[in-house]
From TrEMBL:
Renumbered residue ranges of the record's region Disordered: 279-304, 450-490
Taxonomic source organism: Thalassospira tepidiphila
Entry superkingdom: Bacteria
Sequence ranges of Basic and acidic residues compositional bias: 450-463
Designated name of the protein: Terminase
InterPro entries found in the cross-reference section: P-loop_NTPase
Length: 490
C-alpha cells in the first residue's frame, strides 16, 4: 500500500536525482549548490528503496521541514508518530528523523541497523559523528545499504572534512580527479582511509591475525537549482543570485573553494593559512636543513602521533602521521622521532601525557637536542607580549599559538610555507582565544576536541615545530620573536 502511494506521489524530477536513485554506490554525496533537491532525494530513497532509514539533521529543531515534506509526499500523517519522529508504514518500512547537536549524540543510535543512513546538510555534522554511525549502516536481511550525504559547500573550517571525504570530486588539487557520478572505492586501513581500484577484499595483518576488509563504493553527484524545475518556477535562482559573495558562489554555483566564515575569536584566520599553503612546493629549500621537528604524541585511541618537520625558518615539510595503535609507548615514538629527524635537528615534544615518556627517552638519545614543550607552563612566555606590546600570555600554549599567528600574518613578511593538507588547515583554524585577566588565553585542546569531534594533532605538531628553538639559534626574546628578525646560522 505505502509503496504504491509513494510511487504515485514521488518520482525523480531531475537527472541528478535519477542518478542518485540508480547508482550502485554504497556511499553517495549529493548537492553542492543550494536548491538541488537534496531533501527530496533522501526522502524518495527512504520511501521507495529502503526498509530501515535514519535521516539526520545536526539540530533536531531543524527537522520540521523534513517532516512536513514527508507528509506532503504521503499526503497523510496517519502512519507518522510525531512524539518519536518516526514513520511506520504498512509494508514494514521504518523512517526515523533525528538530530545530533552534541558530539557524542551519535551514541543514541548505535546498535540500530539502518540500510539507509542519510545526513541532511552533512557539512554541519562532525566527521566523527558520521563515521561512527557508518558502522550501523547495514541490513540484517541483506538489503542494499546506502550512506547518503546531502550538502552545500561548508562555511566553516570544521566542515572541511566533507571535501576530504569526497576529494576526488571536490578537491581541485587531487592527483586523480573523478567525474560526477563516477564510482571510486575506499577502505579504512590502520586508521587511515585509502583509495583502491576495485572492491576486491583486502587482507590486513593485525599481529598474528589476518583481517579481510572490502572497500566500499563511493560517488558524488552534483546538483544545482537549474536541476530543480519546481524551485526554478518560484524564482529561487534569483534569490541565490542576490546573495553577497562568497556566499553567492557557494550556494548558487556550488563553489567549494569560495570562502569560509571565520569565528570572530579564531586564533589564525583561514585566509592566512590558505596563503601559506599556496606558497608551499614539494621541492624543499636546497640550502636549508631540517632545523626543527615538532612532535605531538598520540594519547592512544583514535588520536594520531604527528611529526612536523621544519626546514630553515620558513618551510614546513610534509607531516609524518602515525595512527595511535602504531605508536603505543614513549620508546616507540622516540625511535620514530630519531628516524625522521636529520643530524642537528632539534626535536620539540609536547610533554603532556605520553609525551613525558617520549621526552625522557629522547633526552637519553640526543641530549640537549630535545626541547620540552609544556603548554601549561609559563617558562617561555613569562614577560612576553604580542606584537602590540600590550597583551601578555596566560601560558606557553597561548604564546606558541600566537607566535605562529603573527608569523602567518601577511604583514609579517615571513612568508611561511606549510603543506596543503586540508586536515592540517582545519586543525590550525580550529582554536579560539579570549582575554582572561588581560592575558591571551587559547581554548584547551580537550575543549577543541569536544567541539570538532577529533583531536587537532596535525595543527599542534606544526605549532610545536614553529615553537621549538633550533640548536644554532638563541631562544626568542621580545625583540627577537617568532623568527622574524634573524636567520639561523648553519
Amino acid at each position: 500500500m505505502a509503496r504504491k502511494i509513494a510511487n504515485r506521489l514521488w518520482m525523480p524530477h531531475s537527472v541528478p536525482q535519477l542518478m542518485a536513485m540508480m547508482t550502485p554506490a554504497a556511499q553517495i554525496g549529493y548537492g553542492g549548490a543550494a536548491g538541488g533537491g537534496k531533501t527530496d532525494t533522501m526522502l524518495g530513497l527512504s520511501f521507495l528503496e529502503h526498509q530501515r532509514s535514519l535521516i539526520l539533521r545536526r539540530e533536531a529543531t531543524q527537522l520540521n521541514g523534513l517532516v512536513e515534506r514527508s507528509v506532503e509526499i504521503i499526503r497523510s500523517d496517519k502512519f507518522f508518530n510525531g512524539s518519536k519522529n518516526i514513520w511506520k508504514l504498512p509494508d514494514g518500512k521504518r523512517i526515523r528523523f533525528g538530530g545530533l547537536p552534541k558530539a557524542d549524540d551519535w551514541m543514541k543510535y548505535q546498535g540500530q541497523p539502518n540500510d539507509l543512513l542519510a545526513f541532511d546538510e552533512a557539512a554541519n555534522f562532525l566527521e566523527s559523528q558520521v563515521r561512527n554511525l557508518m558502522a550501523w549502516n547495514r541490513s540484517a536481511s541483506g538489503h542494499h545499504c546506502r550512506l547518503f550525504l546531502g550538502f552545500n559547500p561548508p562555511t566553516t573550517a570544521e566542515g572541511q572534512w566533507i571535501v576530504a571525504f569526497f576529494a576526488p570530486w571536490l578537491d581541485d588539487g587531487h592527483r586523480k580527479p573523478a567525474e560526477p557520478g563516477e564510482i571510486r572505492f575506499f577502505a579504512m586501513i590502520d586508521g587511515k582511509e585509502q583509495e583502491f581500484e576495485t572492491d576486491e577484499p583486502i587482507e590486513v595483518k593485525r599481529g598474528e591475525h589476518i583481517r579481510v576488509i572490502r572497500p566500499r563504493s563511493r560517488t558524488f553527484i552534483p546538483a544545482r537549482v537549474e536541476d530543480n524545475s519546481f524551485l526554478m518556477d518560484t524564482g529561487y535562482a534569483d534569490t541565490l543570485e542576490a546573495l553577497p559573495e562568497p556566499l553567492r558562489s557557494m550556494m548558487r554555483d556550488g563553489a567549494f573553494g569560495a570562502g569560509l566564515d571565520d569565528d570572530v575569536w579564531q586564533v589564525i584566520p583561514t585566509e592566512w593559512i590558505k596563503q601559506a599553503q599556496a606558497r608551499w612546493t614539494e621541492q624543499k629549500p636546497s640550502d636549508a636543513p631540517m632545523t626543527t621537528l615538532g612532535v605531538d604524541p598520540s594519547r592512544g585511541g583514535r588520536d594520531e602521533t604527528v611529526m612536523s618537520p621544519k626546514y630553515g625558518v620558513r618551510y614546513f615539510g610534509e607531516q609524518v602521521v602515525i595512527p595511535g595503535t602504531g605508536a603505543p609507548d614513549g620508546q616507540t615514538v622516540a625511535g620514530l622521532c630519531i628516524a625522521n629527524a636529520q643530524k642537528g635537528t632539534r626535536i620539540g615534544v609536547d610533554v603532556i601525557g605520553i609525551g613525558a615518556s617520549v621526552y625522557d627517552h629522547l633526552k637519553d638519545l640526543v641530549g640537549d637536542r630535545v626541547e620540552e614543550l609544556n603548554g601549561a607552563s609559563t617558562r617561555r612566555s613569562e614577560g612576553k607580549t604580542d606584537k602590540s606590546g600590550r597583551l601578555e600570555f596566560k601560558n606557553d600554549r597561548a604564546y606558541d599559538h600566537w607566535m605562529l599567528r603573527e608569523a602567518l600574518d601577511p604583514k609579517s613578511g615571513m612568508e611561511l610555507a606549510i603543506p596543503p593538507d586540508r586536515a592540517l588547515a582545519a586543525d590550525l583554524a580550529a582554536p579560539r582565544w579570549k582575554l582572561s585577566g588581560g592575558k591571551i588565553q587559547i581554548e584547551e585542546k580537550a575543549d577543541i576536541k569536544k567541539r570538532i569531534g577529533r583531536s587537532p594533532d596535525r595543527g599542534d605538531a606544526l605549532i610545536d615545530a614553529h615553537a621549538t628553538t633550533p640548536v644554532s639559534v638563541k631562544p626568542r626574546s621580545n625583540t627577537e620573536r617568532a623568527e622574524m628578525s634573524y636567520e639561523p646560522e648553519y
